[in-house]
């Protein structure tokens, strides 16, 4: 899994760093060029670089997923859900994404469907905007043109780097049609999966797959990555287990007090 690669990187020894001395010299030299003075790396340069590698911490996932059906003004800037900032929007640009036009009953079905997709994981799915803390904002509704991507055949889009992307904004465009709720639900779960580091899967029944074959879920088995044909995953591994990867990132859902009482 791609995030394990960086966990391994954080445990590299000084011996490995010394073997890569040419790369270290280039990095240190570049840093000094930025300061207006070129020089070979000294002990301080190496110390700073080693400290940055050893103290690397993987980003922690946001465990609240907020579904927003209202109109939303989004701005192009580093991801910050609380400030309506998205890295998917061009820097300096701003767009008003329209409201998701549906009845309250339809919205509740959609909310319930998304909750069911993440039922086994330690996350909270809500349509009430959190007053504080970090969270993923899923803007439901609109089209790709709503965020400056006119003409692109997208059902949704999310930032993806192979790790958790905290405080991200995810866009799930309204699919419409007879299977509207199911399609929108699966789009939301798919795009949120990217924010939790999941690649595309080549297994049709997996939520992370592009293929169409009815209802989907996070499949618990090793699967090839890919869109329209199998390929290596982004971390160059041969497979991804969407359900297990999510479980390792988020943890299992803990039973609440009411459910514990009902078992007694």
Explain what the structure shows:
- The N terminus and C terminus are likely disordered.
- The radius of gyration is 21 Å and the shape is globular.
- The strands form three sheets. The protein has a five-stranded mixed sheet with strand order 5-1-6-8-7, covered by helices on one side. Strands 3-2-4 form a three-stranded mixed sheet, with no helix packed on it.
- Helix 5 crosses helix 6.
- Helix content is 32%, strand content 13%.
- By secondary structure, it is an alpha/beta fold.
- The chain folds into two domains: 53 residues, no CATH class; 187 residues, Collagenase (Catalytic Domain) (3-Layer(aba) Sandwich), CATH 3.40.390.
Q: Which key features would you list for this structure?
A:
13% strand, globular, Collagenase (Catalytic Domain), five-stranded mixed sheet, 264 residues, alpha/beta, 8 helices, disordered C terminus, 2 domains, three-stranded mixed sheet
Compact overview of the structure:
32% of the residues lie in helices and 13% in strands. It is α/β, with parallel strands linked by helices. The two termini are 40 Å apart.
Compile the SSE list and pairings.
Layout: H1 2-9, H2 14-19, H3 21-34, H4 43-54, E1 64-68, E2 72-76, E3 85-86, E4 94-97, H5 104-117, E5 124-126, E6 136-140, E7 156-157, E8 169-172, H6 180-195, E9 225-226, E10 230-231, H7 242-250, H8 257-262
Parallel strand pairs: 1-5, 1-6, 2-3, 6-8
Antiparallel strand pairs: 2-4, 7-8, 9-10
Q: Roughly how many Å apart are the termini?
A: 40 Å
- Overall CATH class of the largest domain: Alpha Beta
**Strand segment tally:** 10
Secondary-structure arrangement, i.e. CATH architecture of the largest domain:
3-Layer(aba) Sandwich
Structurally, the number of domains stands at 2
The number of helices is 8
Q: Give the proportion of residues in helices.
A: 25-40%
Instruction: Characterize the main sheet.
Output: 5 strands, mixed
- Structural class comes to alpha/beta
- The CATH topology assignment of the largest domain is Collagenase (Catalytic Domain)
Shape: globular
Order of helices and strands: HHHHEEEEHEEEEHEEHH
Q: What is the rounded Rg?
A: 21 Å
């Amino acid at each position: 899994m791609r995030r394990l690669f960086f966990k391994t990187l954080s445990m590299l020894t000084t011996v490995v760093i010394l073997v890569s001395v040419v790369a270290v010299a280039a990095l240190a030299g570049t840093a000094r060029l930025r300061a207006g003075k070129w020089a070979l790396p000294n002990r301080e340069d190496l110390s700073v670089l080693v400290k940055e590698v050893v103290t690397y911490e993987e980003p922690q996932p946001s465990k609240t997923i907020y579904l927003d059906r209202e109109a939303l003004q989004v701005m192009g800037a580093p991801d910050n859900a609380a400030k309506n900032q998205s890295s998917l929007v061009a820097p300096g640009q701003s767009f008003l994404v329209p409201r998701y036009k549906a009845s309250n009953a339809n919205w509740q079905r959609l909310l319930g469907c998304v909750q069911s997709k993440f039922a086994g994981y330690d996350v909270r799915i809500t349509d009430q905007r959190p007053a504080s803390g970090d969270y993923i904002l899923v803007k439901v509704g609109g089209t790709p043109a709503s965020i400056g991507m006119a003409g692109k055949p997208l059902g949704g889009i999310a930032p993806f780097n192979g790790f958790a992307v905290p405080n991200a904004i995810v866009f799930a465009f309204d699919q419409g049609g007879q299977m509207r709720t199911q399609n929108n639900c699966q789009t939301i779960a798919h795009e949120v999966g990217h924010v939790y580091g999941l690649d595309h899967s080549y297994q049709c029944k997996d939520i992370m797959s592009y293929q169409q074959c009815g209802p989907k879920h996070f499949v618990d088995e090793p699967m090839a990555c890919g869109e329209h044909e199998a390929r290596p995953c982004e971390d160059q591994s041969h497979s991804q287990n969407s359900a297990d990867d999510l479980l390792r990132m988020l943890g299992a859902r803990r039973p609440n007090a009411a459910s514990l009482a009902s078992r007694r």
